[in-house]
Design a protein that fits this description.
By secondary structure, the protein is mainly β. It is 0% helix and 56% strand. It is built from no helices and 18 strands. The two termini are 23 Å apart.
């Protein structure tokens, strides 16, 4: 998910502590805190909010200059959220074991549009948008090829694309109820050439997951769960412009169940200087259900954002508006405004 990293908007974090070893590399503890004021149309209540995050990041070097790393992320209130183990080789690319980080396979491209702060669907208004994640939200293994002619290929595989995060020497839960997914496989081609101050990023990805086709008291499926994504971002000096689309087919056949999702998004961001950036973005999401009257519901949203960073401190603002949020037909328009202060520590 792309943010304007030139200004430190993607991950405001600093080192809390460093433990070094002669052969084992080092382990860092990094973190950040977010304070927000949120105003939602028609909603009253406490507008002040706060979140703190901690991550443990370790890395080291093998013989021949190859490197490895491990990251364990803790979200707000010290709740474990995700982790990964990564091996960067000299000639064979990058291998990663990811515990439901969301960025493996096509999950890393669910919304890569330029923006000053957050995605359109994550800027104050609750949308419950369905994004194409592939195996990214499950424990998965991925391989990214070395960069060849500005192009990389990533393949991500999960033996059970069920969203579980087993400990070592353990397995995920047994199938049953809503757990119907089996083996999942993603593939993504990323082309990222640069021409001086101008850059281009073209990405195309697809995912397929085997699923139980017939199950008592659950949906009847007609085939594999399939997802796809494609997008293009142009960096024109201080200006970034992009558009992308994605689709998902659930193969559901039971009346009233979701059978198709389609998402499109657009964004333009301007880096005014080394500290200040502004952006405008739009997003649409369609949900189609099986054999129902007025089977399609479309959400539409737009967001204007401003971000100012100074060292490890960032002040951000988003004004966001969505129509038919949470795929609710004729729900009207919901407006939300968020002011955030982020601090690295």
């Amino acid at each position: 998910m792309k943010k304007i990293t030139k200004y430190g908007l993607s991950a405001l974090c600093g080192s809390l502590a460093v433990v070094s070893g002669a052969n084992a590399g080092e382990m860092k503890v990094v973190g950040n805190a977010h304070l927000t004021w949120t105003s939602l149309q028609g909603v009253t209540g406490q507008p002040l909010g706060m979140k703190t995050n901690l991550s443990f990041v370790g890395n080291g070097e093998l013989d021949g200059g190859q490197t490895f790393s491990v990251t364990v992320a803790h979200t707000d209130q010290n709740a474990w959220s995700s982790s990964n183990i990564t091996l960067n080789t000299n000639n064979l690319g990058t291998f990663k074991l990811s515990m439901a980080e969301g960025g493996g396979g096509i999950g890393g491209y669910d919304d890569n549009m330029p923006r000053a702060w957050e995605e359109t669907w994550d800027a104050g208004v609750g949308t419950n948008i369905n994004l194409q994640k592939g195996v990214g939200s499950s424990t998965n293994l991925s391989w990214t090829t070395p960069r060849i002619f500005a192009t990389t290929l990533q393949v991500a595989w999960s033996p059970e694309n069920d969203g579980t995060q087993p400990n070592d020497k353990s397995v995920g839960g047994a199938k049953g109820g809503s757990t119907t997914y089996f083996t999942g496989l993603d593939g993504v081609i990323n082309i990222n050439p640069s021409f001086g101050a101008f850059g281009t990023n073209l990405f195309i990805g697809a995912s397929t997951t085997e699923q139980e086709e017939t199950q008592a008291n659950a949906e009847n499926k007609t085939g594999n769960h399939e997802e796809a994504v494609a997008g293009l971002v142009l960096d024109l000096g201080p200006l970034s412009v992009g558009a992308q689309g994605s689709a998902e087919s659930t193969k559901a056949s039971t009346a009233g169940e979701a059978e198709y999702y389609g998402n499109t998004s657009f964004g333009v961001a301007l880096n005014i200087n080394d500290n200040l950036s502004v952006s405008y973005s739009e997003a649409r999401s369609i949900k189609s259900t099986v054999n129902t009257v007025n089977s399609k519901v479309e959400m539409q949203g737009e967001s204007v954002q401003v971000a100012y960073t100074l060292g490890g401190v960032a002040l951000k603002y988003a004004d966001t508006e969505w129509r038919n949020a949470k795929y609710t037909r004729d729900a009207g328009t919901t407006d939300g405004k968020v002011l955030s202060l982020s601090m690295a520590f």
